[in-house]
């Protein structure tokens, strides 16, 4: 039913619009002196009442243009052409107008400039190609407001309480300043610390991938991007911030940064320390300063397909769903360009140390084939610490206007240490114990990584012809020592102790990996509308893995052969790729095939045996994009890829942390193949500030690598892997957003669903699990310079079924309500409060409601004339209702989990933001 509704809306929307708009405007643009048609002239149709852009187009080779499907009303038409004076004319159309402006003669600027001075003001918003441009001064914000507050006033842009930005319904992950990264591309840094009065324009567009930008071939990868264009007197400046937040119970969040930016130069030093999960905004931003940029040539040790992915934006930091953190980070950032921007250098250095202490519990009820239900309980105390240093950098050199050489590198050393204690037990339907396990685990290890990329790329004089060559060396080594002490009790059916098993293991692990890859990509236009891309990649990997397990009970020097391995593996991969694309002003279609041939050899040095495989992976892809208008488009895509089993899944060596759970590989695994289909529709009507989108995706996997388990009467599990068919998923989403600028309101609604079918084998019985989820979300926002109010309700229905039987009906319902408001008070003060209401009603699996109301508030006041000093008092979880709790209802399993969390706390904070410009304001000429 939902599918039918989505498709109906998708196809009825343009039809209804077409029926309501019937007027037309057309004409021919010429140069009367040379009597030539002015092809590619830009024609803009602007609403006379509000100066908002209605439509835009370009003249064809005959100078002809036409606007159709227009509502009645008053308009202005603006025509521009290089070296010609702008043509402006007022028009009035009715429902059935068919205005023919005839031949429009443009005049040279040089002819009329000595006679008259033309003064023009830019529209508040306009389309420039595929880029939406907002004139910053046309949107009123309070004095000393930052860019975040400016973005909140722009049609089609949303900024939530955490600083996350959405433009035209899509999350903005990159914010640039004058086309370059501003100390990295994290949206928060530029939008928080730059002032709104320093901005000339805000540009919103879809940024292509680096490969698509070079080759011109659409690979379907687009990221919503905002570019902040600064005024001339604001391009050179400085910014510094100190953010200190403390409490009486040793909690705190502290950060500081000093930075300068002058033309292309950007330099900063920073430090952060936090004992809170909800880190300060500066903490989140500064961790993401980057120094290296290149696409990795990745081939798994198993011979899997080469993938083209971007490097991690924040690989020195890991997040946890719970626990008590203690995180320290120090760093420095430098970027500049030299010799008329021909040479560039970017460096980023970090030192970090992240510690987390967590206490977790888990209670699980599981139904197995032809067996009574198992009831399991587990409690764990875990302490982890990860620290290290990293240096990343990029050097670029524009050899000539068409050729670029870029050298990127990364060096990092990471140390990790962990200690944990856990206890788990299993009982049967009769309440008698079945098995118990207590264990202690400890370990320490180091990892060193060296990687780099040398890229030379060239654009030729013939448009669309490009050549790109990459050389990529990588090296990695790791060493670790672990200790595992276990005591396992096994019980008889009457609950009396049967036997006790003790294990005391010491594990010494070492490994290394060295690789060299190369990639060549060439594109060449076959005609004006057809372009061909061909590529070849090669990568060789030599790796080793030496895992030694010793029995400390019998003899510390005695190696356990069944748990140890000494492997060496070598992989050679060759990849050929060919892609053909057709494109015109409305349609872009690209289709192609990537073929990977891999030779894989695994040597067991202990047993003197070899395991060899040859793979041929085929990965087809097709992307189609139809541009209905500048603000409306539809895309259809298909991607197929083959995935090889990993080394851990293939190697037949037991892996054991506890006697109750073991993993054994399966050397007979075959590769799986996934097929992914997708269709999407997006429309943003700028004049009415209305956005609608719909998407639908379906995927299925042949020969999927699935888990198989053998569970005995003591709940002892031996896990392995096999190939099976039946894994598939389907999901869809329908979104709508509408702004009402005259009453300062915005409304949005989102409806989604997803269904996944997965296969697993339990005790030689196939278990088909089907999980369905429905989501409904709405949003309401009201804003004025003095008051802002937000309300976001959402509801989720989940169902789970299992072919081996269900526990209860497998249904659960939750609904949440996010309410927040901000009020500007006298004396430059601000009060903000928010409620996060969560309702998890009782169901057939859980008899207890779980409802929480998290109430947070703060009051702040800004001091000094420039409002750069802020004093803040904040209270988190005023009602003290926060709980570290999750629960899950599936087909043959239900579970509930708890974790450590930070309870109610009060913070007193001082924030000092000092930013300014080296250049003084100059009078407009």
Automatic annotation (TrEMBL):
Record-annotated Outer membrane protein beta-barrel domain positions: 458-912
Signal peptide: none
Top-rank taxon, per record: Bacteria
InterPro entries: OMP_b-brl_3
Pfam families hit by this protein: OMP_b-brl_3
Disordered, as annotated region: 414-439
Stated name of the protein: Outer membrane protein beta-barrel domain-containing protein
């Amino acid at each position: 039913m939902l599918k039918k509704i989505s498709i109906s809306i998708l196809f009825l929307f343009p039809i209804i619009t077409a029926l309501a708009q019937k007027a037309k405007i057309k004409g021919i643009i010429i140069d009367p002196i040379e009597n030539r048609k002015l092809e590619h002239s830009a024609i803009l149709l602007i609403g006379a009442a509000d100066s908002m852009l209605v439509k835009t187009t370009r003249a064809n080779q005959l100078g002809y243009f036409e606007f159709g499907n227009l509502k009645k009303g008053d308009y202005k038409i603006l025509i521009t052409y290089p070296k010609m004076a702008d043509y402006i004319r007022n028009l009035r159309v009715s429902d059935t107008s068919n205005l023919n402006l005839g031949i429009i003669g443009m005049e040279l600027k040089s002819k009329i400039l000595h006679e008259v001075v033309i003064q023009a003001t830019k529209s508040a918003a306009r389309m420039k190609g595929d880029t939406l441009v907002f004139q910053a001064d046309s949107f009123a914000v309070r004095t000393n407001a930052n860019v975040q507050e400016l973005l909140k006033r722009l049609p089609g842009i949303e900024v939530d309480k955490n600083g996350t930005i959405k433009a035209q319904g899509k999350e903005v992950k990159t914010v640039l300043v004058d086309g370059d990264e501003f100390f990295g591309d994290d949206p928060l840094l530029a939008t928080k610390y730059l002032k709104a009065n320093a901005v000339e324009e805000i540009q919103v567009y879809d940024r292509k991938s680096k490969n698509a930008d070079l080759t011109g071939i659409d690979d379907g990868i687009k990221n919503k991007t905002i570019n902040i264009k600064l005024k001339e007197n604001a391009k050179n400046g400085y910014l510094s911030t100190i953010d200190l937040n403390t409490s009486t119970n040793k909690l705190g969040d502290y950060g500081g940064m000093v930075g300068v930016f002058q033309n292309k130069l950007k330099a900063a030093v920073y430090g952060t320390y936090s004992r809170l999960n909800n880190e300060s905004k500066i903490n989140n931003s500064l961790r993401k300063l980057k120094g290296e940029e290149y696409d990795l040539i990745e081939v798994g040790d198993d011979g899997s397909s080469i993938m083209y992915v971007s490097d991690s934006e924040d690989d020195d930091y890991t997040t946890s769903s719970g626990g008590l953190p203690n995180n320290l980070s120090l760093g420095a950032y430098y970027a500049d360009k030299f010799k008329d921007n021909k040479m560039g250098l970017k460096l980023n250095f970090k030192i970090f140390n992240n510690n987390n202490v967590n206490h977790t519990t888990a209670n699980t009820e599981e139904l197995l084939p032809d067996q009574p239900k198992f009831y399991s309980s587990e409690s764990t105390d875990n302490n982890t610490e990860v620290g290290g240093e990293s240096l990343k950098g990029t050097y670029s050199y524009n050899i000539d206007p068409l050729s670029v050489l870029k050298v990127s590198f990364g060096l990092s050393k990471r140390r990790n240490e962990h200690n944990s204690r856990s206890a788990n037990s299993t009982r049967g339907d009769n309440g008698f114990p079945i098995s118990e396990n207590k264990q202690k685990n400890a370990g320490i290890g180091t990892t060193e990584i060296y990687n780099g990329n040398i890229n030379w790329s060239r654009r030729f004089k013939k448009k669309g012809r490009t050549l790109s060559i990459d050389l990529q060396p990588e090296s990695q080594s790791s060493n670790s020592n672990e200790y595992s002490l276990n005591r396992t009790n096994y019980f008889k059916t009457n609950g009396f102790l049967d036997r006790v098993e003790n294990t005391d293991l010491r594990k010494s692990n070492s490994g290394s990996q060295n690789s060299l890859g190369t990639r060549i990509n060439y594109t060449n236009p076959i005609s004006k509308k057809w372009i061909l891309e061909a590529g070849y990649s090669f990568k060789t990997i030599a790796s080793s893995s030496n895992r030694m397990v010793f029995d400390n009970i019998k003899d510390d020097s005695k190696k356990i052969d069944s748990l140890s391995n000494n492997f060496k593996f070598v992989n050679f991969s060759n990849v050929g790729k060919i892609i053909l694309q057709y494109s015109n002003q409305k349609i872009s279609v690209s289709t192609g095939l990537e073929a990977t041939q891999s030779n894989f050899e695994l040597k067991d040095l202990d047993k003197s045996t070899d395991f060899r495989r040859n793979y041929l992976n085929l990965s087809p892809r097709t992307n189609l994009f139809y541009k209905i208008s500048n603000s409306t488009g539809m895309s259809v895509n298909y991607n197929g890829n083959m995935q090889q089993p990993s080394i851990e899944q293939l190697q037949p060596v037991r892996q054991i942390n506890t006697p109750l759970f073991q993993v054994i590989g399966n050397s007979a695994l075959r590769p799986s193949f996934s097929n992914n289909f997708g269709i999407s529709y997006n429309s943003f009507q700028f004049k009415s500030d209305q956005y609608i989108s719909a998407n639908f995706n379906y995927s299925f996997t042949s020969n999927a690598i699935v888990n198989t388990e053998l569970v005995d009467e003591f709940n002892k599990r031996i896990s392995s892997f096999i190939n099976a068919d039946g894994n598939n998923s389907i999901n869809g989403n329908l979104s709508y957003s509408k702004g009402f600028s005259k009453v300062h309101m915005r409304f949005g609604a989102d409806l989604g669903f997803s269904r996944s079918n997965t296969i697993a084998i339990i005790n030689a019985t196939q278990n088909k699990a089907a999980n369905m989820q429905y989501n409904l979300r709405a949003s309401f926002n009201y804003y004025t310079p003095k008051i802002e109010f937000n309300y976001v309700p959402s509801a989720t229905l989940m169902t789970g079924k299992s072919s081996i039987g269900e526990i209860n009906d497998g249904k659960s319902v939750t609904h949440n309500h996010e309410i927040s408001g901000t009020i500007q008070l006298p004396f430059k003060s601000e009060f903000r409060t928010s409620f996060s209401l969560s309702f998890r009603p009782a169901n057939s699996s859980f008899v207890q409601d779980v409802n929480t109301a998290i109430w947070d508030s703060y009051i702040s006041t800004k001091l000094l004339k420039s409002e750069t000093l802020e004093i803040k008092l904040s209270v988190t979880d005023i009602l003290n209702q926060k709980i570290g709790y999750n629960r899950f209802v599936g087909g043959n399993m239900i579970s509930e989990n708890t974790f450590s969390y930070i309870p109610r706390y009060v913070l007193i904070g001082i924030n000092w933001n000092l930013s300014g410009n080296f250049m003084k304001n100059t009078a407009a000429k």
